[in-house]
Amino acid sequence: MKKLLLTGVAASLCAGAALAEYPEKAITIVVPFAAGGPTDKVARDLAEVMRKSLGNQTILIDNVGGAGGTLGATKVAKAAPDGYTLLLHHIGMATAPALYRNMQYKTLEDFEYLGLVVDVPMTLIGKPSLPANNYAELAKWIDANRGKINLANAGLGSASHLCGLLYQSTVKVDMVTVPYKGTAPAMTDLLGGQVDLMCDQTTNTTSQIEAGKVKAFAVTSSKRLSGAALSKLPTLDEAGLKGFQVGIWHGVYAPKNTPKAVTDKINAAMKNALKDPDFMKRQEALGSVIISDARLNGAEHKKFVESEINRWGPVIKAAGQYAD
């Protein structure tokens, strides 16, 4: 018995030492969308500063796109729970249960929730040749062109898809939704005039707005944003759509049963990164709002995601847009 006790103590000490040395090798953050998109930008900015608090260990970005983010999330859910494979996902973490009937993971059961990092507002933008120059003119144009308006999105379950669903529901106008395989091709066709409108994250639209390549009509935040290009835009609430607000929040996750000592280290590194001056400056320029409330912590992060599942489920089901 004494020998068994000693063995158990030794094993515990070894495990503790291993955790204390985390990370001993490169960490991978899985982004469940294509490189160059809004979520990818957030992940790369975050990884660049998080590594400073993790012994300057390398943090790699692995873009695993497809199926509205569920392929990348599945990869992390099934990964070893050792802290070396993480997930950075947006609002799709909460909307996927309503959009996809055959997911290979359970959102609230198969992950350790590590905290939210940024909330990215959306912008309602249009093709350069659109005759409207402000939201009031756009509203009249939409009413006059019912049934003929093309609304682009980056694919089922994307942020632009979700914003488009809520917008159509709010203004009570059905549009022809045009899904693309990612944000970049959707933006290309909007710039070329092949589609009329898109509602996408500020991280993807700010540079196009600043360059005058698209027409910008409003933001989806609760108040106006800072930044030369975005501060001129009214909120949709101001423009008359009372209560309209969509923020594309981004959070960090680890596989279920990742040791608490490891998740605590990751959470601490994440919080330090959010205070980094360079990170803060980059996010402000893109219109992103850095999370500073209780959702920085895992338990509140999880409660928030559950509330978002309950919020978006009815909207998605009413639209009748599902995928197997």
What are the SSEs and their pairings?
Blueprint: H1 2-20, E1 27-31, H2 38-50, E2 59-63, H3 70-77, E3 85-89, H4 92-99, E4 111-126, H5 135-144, E5 150-153, H6 159-171, E6 176-179, H7 183-191, E7 197-201, H8 202-210, E8 215-219, E9 247-255, H9 260-274, H10 277-285, E10 289-290, H11 298-319
Parallel strand pairs: 1-2, 1-3, 5-6, 5-7
Antiparallel strand pairs: 3-9, 4-7, 4-8, 4-9, 4-10
Quickly describe the structure.
42% of the residues lie in helices and 19% in strands. By secondary structure, it is α/β, with parallel strands linked by helices.
Can you offer a commentary on this structure?
The chain is an alpha/beta fold and 324 residues long. It folds into two domains: 26-120 and 248-319, D-Maltodextrin-Binding Protein, domain 2; 121-219, 3-Layer(aba) Sandwich (D-Maltodextrin-Binding Protein, domain 2), CATH 3.40.190.10. It has eleven helices and ten strands. β1 (27-31), α2 (38-50) and β2 form a beta-alpha-beta unit. The longest helix has 22 residues, at 298-319. The protein is globular, with a radius of gyration of 21 Å. The protein starts with a helix and ends in a 5-residue tail after the last helix.
- In one word, what is the shape? globular
Spans of at least 5 consecutive residues with low confidence: 1-18
Percentage beta strand: 15-25%
**Count of discrete domains:** 2
Distance between the termini: 54 Å
What would you give as the CATH superfamily of the largest domain? Answer: Bordetella uptake gene, domain 1
Structural key phrases:
single chain, 324 residues, alpha/beta, D-Maltodextrin-Binding Protein, domain 2, 2 domains, ten-stranded mixed β-sheet, 10 strands, globular, disordered N terminus
